[in-house]
Queue: 3 jobs
Job 1
Amino acid sequence: MKRILVTGGSGFIGSHLCERLLNEGNEVICVDNFFSGSKQNVIHLLDNKNFELIRHDITMPFFAEVDEIYNLACPASPIHYQHNAIKTVKTSVMGSINMLGLAKRVGAKILQASTSEVYGDPLVHPQPESYRGNVNPIGPRSCYDEGKRCAETLFTSYREQHNLKIKIARIFNTYGPRMSVNDGRVVSNFAVQAIQNKDITICGDGKQTRSFMYIDDLVEGLVRMMNTPDSVTGPINIGNPNEFSILELAYRIIALTNSKSKLIFKALPQDDPAQRKPDISLALNTLNGWKPRVELEAGLKPTIDYFSKILNS
Ligand code: NAD
Ligand code: UDP
């Protein structure tokens, strides 16, 4: 049995990860400030004697004897991370310093939830880990993108200077149950709009692309990455390379919900990436047989069921 700290553990991804780690027989400490996550996401875990939920902001130091740390704390949806840009940078930078300091003190392995946003609006397609990206350092997405890029720098520096056991996972767009209903990301927005027969809000002409990974595939990838030998540090892209335009996504969700929703077109936000698709060759070769298994429709069904239940209750 390991004792594992998950920061951001009551968020969308964190709650699934806590559940998985508990099911494997580990002790899990979930730390969250509930900025974009909610207690509701982990309420079913509270009776588990191996689970501890702590309200804490990782921009402040935190001490606990742990074997592993998954550093997931950071708002991920543009609406949330732009709400307080300075706080978003602090969470990625000061939060990483605090968690790396903890890992150093207790000798824990530490995994950083990095992001495909480190590639910005990519000029290379699909994106391999060697691509250095096209990021606007002063745009509306920069608090998130540059914060995450700096976190990668910190992780790498702690490895070089203090020989820490680090892992950097570059996560591509992930969806599934427990995304927040109003977090503004495209899958949750379209599903909620379609279920309620409201207009589907397409940003720009909807020809921009994303590659969507179901939550179970991501959790599997993160756990396998944590369990790789110490020589494997990443960055490693974890995503599903099946690429869809935003319009295609809207049509699929409308079909799956038998919705009467119509499409409406809104302005494309500044610096919205035109295309995104991971090159996952490195993950396929390194993560002990991992590959994305859940196709878009198979993943959208439980996601839509989840939102239907929430909206009906
Ligand atoms: P989320 O917003 O649901 O979860 C983030 C969690 O972190 C929330 O519970 C939030 O309350 C918590 N948090 C935020 N700031 C904090 C702070 N200062 N101290 C403590 N807790 C804090 O988002 P998510 O989709 O679950 O994303 C989890 C992680 O994965 C994030 O680091 C995100 O950048 C990364 N990621 C997600 C995706 C995706 O598609 N979902 C893609 C790339 C990277
Ligand atoms: N998007 C959209 N309508 C929405 C929400 C998002 O068309 O209601 C678009 C958004 O402009 C972007 C894509 O969907 O091009 C993915 O947006 P999301 O915020 O989910 O993720 P990210 O842009 O961070 O990949």
Job 2
Amino acid sequence: MSSNLSKNTTKKILVTGGAGYIGSHTCVELLNDGHEIIVLDNLSNSSEESLKRVQEITGKTLEFVKGDIRDHKLLNSLFSNHEIASVIHFAGLKAVGESVSMPLAYYDNNVNGTLVLLEAMKQANVKTLVFSSSATVYGDPASLPISEDFPTSATNPYGRSKLMIEEILQDLHVSDNSWRIALLRYFNPVGAHPSGRIGEDPNDIPNNLMPYIAQVAIGKLDKLSVFGNDYPTHDGTGVRDYIHVVDLSLGHVRAIEKLQKTAGIHAWNLGVGKGYSVLEMVAAFEQASQQPVPYQFAPRRSGDIAACYANPEKALNELGWKAEKGVDDMVSDSWRWQSVNPNGYHS
Ligand code: NAD
Ligand code: UDP
């Protein structure tokens, strides 16, 4: 790993936020696919250890630059010192609840950070971008499954930042149609690399279901609060489209390949196309871990919707991508990561 900014002539992919949960798994798949990558991350929600392990898993090296996407000078020097062909942009803040209490930090990091990145890309004439969007841009959908042409809306600053960035990217493409942009709308990424070496490592008490369940199963947390048991779903608990992070990462590799062949701006759902309830996920986790996951019912969490799952056919037809892993892989890989690394990268 090096932060050497000297002139390098091999065409590379810049991965912002590449030390994070989805970014680190995507780095593995990009390296396995023969790409050269530079990771730019300020480590605000990650550890450099993830990148060491990415290199250990793949037996390949990557370049790491510790820095912020809002740092104009750093970005300009990155683009002028390296032959960067494209950018995969993961960097950003992602906690919905926190975004409600700190909206300015979210708009600054996510929206302003993306503007600084786009300006540097434009100046360097690098016009291929894969952006981490989210199924949250569909708001509360009128019907299921959700297709890419469904109306978009946002109910909190995090979701609004994703929607704003999507709209900025649409405007950018209208202004110059040589841009090649993928808006990847993730459903619920879970699981970990099957090696057990990289996974999700939340800083505090997890907000998301899967890391919370994993920490209950290992005894770090007492019990899960199931938010709502009166939704109009088959068992009353919320239904989501959980997707294995390795499948999700492979979707980025397919999107980069597609953009190399096709101009334009495209939205693609990255989901499995099936919904599982909270209680089904708890049962699957108990089965995989052979550990009890005690839970109690609690009131609905503000802003949550009853059910959400993708129609993933557009990604299949246009990217040749579909999720291959099932819930059993998701929970067993999650449990392996949690049990081998009870304190994440600080274990
Ligand atoms: P993560 O927090 O693990 O990764 C984000 C990375 O970006 C971290 O390593 C963090 O240190 C870095 N970062 C944040 N702000 C930065 C900045 N200003 N400059 C440089 N680096 C910065 O999150 P993740 O789960 O891997 O998510 C990656 C992307 O996918 C995010 O944009 C997120 O909004 C989006 N997304 C995530 C989910 C999910 O459930 N995990 C769902 C939909 C969309
Ligand atoms: N959930 C829950 N308890 C928790 C965390 C989440 O019951 O501690 C539920 C949540 O209400 C939703 C599902 O699990 O129905 C997935 O929530 P998560 O926060 O993981 O993802 P979201 O779909 O909200 O992005």
Job 3
Amino acid sequence: MTIAKPALLCLNTGSSSVKFSLYAVDDHQPQRVLSGQMEGLLGQPRFKAVDAQGTILDERCWDAPKRRAEAVESILAFVRAHACGYRLTAVGHRVVLGGIEYPNAVVVNDDVLSVLDRYVPIVPSHQPAEIEAIRLLCEIDPDLTQVACFDSAFHRTKSELADMYALPLRYRDRGIRRWGFHGLSYDYISTQLPKLDPVLANGKTVVMHLGSGASLCGLVGGRSAYTSMGFSPLDGLMMGTRTGSLDPMIALYLIQQLGMTAADVETLIIKESGLLGVSGLSNDMRDLENATTRDAQLAIDLFVYMLARETGAAMAAIQGLDGIVFTAGIGEHSASIRAKACQALAWAGVAIDALLNQSPGPGACKLSTADSRVGVWLIPTDEEAVIARDTWALSR
Ligand code: ADP
């Protein structure tokens, strides 16, 4: 009798969506078999799954909202039905914050879950859904190994100074630190750089993860030394609906002088600001690039201004700049934002080939000109590949 080869499920559970990928392990190498998502759980849920070549395997929608538990259960049933010849052995979960306890991915047990529960108040937008999915799968199938892969883990290499706020030190002991996020994406980029550009891999590189959430990371020799996000995923760059860096007195002023509640301010700075708030139009960069209104242009200009300003902070923190990497939705697909960002950093010796930037082709591409003092790359990110790698390493 042949023993079925192992397969791994990677889950990225959000407040209204669950994204998933199935990896089969051959020769100790996890390879993606399929991926998909269940979106719009709070309204009219939509399910779509595609195989590794992008061919649609299933697509459906519903009129009534679905509970997250229902979504996770049906995803598990779907991947089991499609894991032909493979045996699902482990589930890797994206978890936003693992704190100082977890500088690496970890196999989940009750002790781990109680540490993760303690961090819920710091990331109420993400952490509860992620923990709920872990607990649910533990109940459904206790034999599956559950691995938590943290967005904060990659940044635990930062120096003590880069991790601090100028508050009395007792607050640091209560979790008020610059945790940093998008670590799974930065981890992936740091594994690609040695193959693509060994000089940058060993040097000082600012990676710009520009998706609906956006941050940058200053890598020194492939390790995180600085990141623009801090205590929560709000700080730093302007994002789809989040403000990015904001004087905390603004929040107090809105509450104490303008009569807003703390919940109102939370909604304003997390869900109603950023590209959406400034443009008054959309949180999607594609919509703003196609729009002709002055406020849409202002939103794009502010996005680029804050990106260049934060890059300057990163350069000072890591004491130099050998390279820039663009990644995630906007970084990978918007030639115009890449061009504007590089133009805003021309003073630092950044120059890209305009034609190549317009049509870089699929996959990783070096965009900088031969005489640019800074190497500029577009590298598509793959957070699931990092989850699969770590899940396999801890469950094999
Ligand atoms: P997340 O995983 O954080 O939801 P992504 O990395 O998928 O985000 O990025 C999503 C964002 O990327 C979209 O909101 C949109 O603003 C932007 N985006 C995607 N494609 C393009 C494009 N062709 N041009 C400009 N922006 C794009």
